[in-house]
Fold this sequence. Notes:
Blueprint: H1 14-31, H2 34-51, H3 55-63
Amino acid sequence: xxxxxxxSINALSKRDLLLIVKALEYTNxxxxxxxxxxxxxxxxxxxxFLTNTTEDQFVEYLxxxx
Length: 66
């Protein structure tokens, strides 16, 4: 299991990332479990840091042409 200490998103498409984000939002809304929105926010925060964008800019980028 040490082989998966770091997860890479290089192979994920914009559509895949958008689906993950939206699925986490949907699951949070329908279960009330904050772990899902916390994970969504953590992913978005890290991706915004890596791309030097705001959350709004990054989500808009994912939503365009999908």
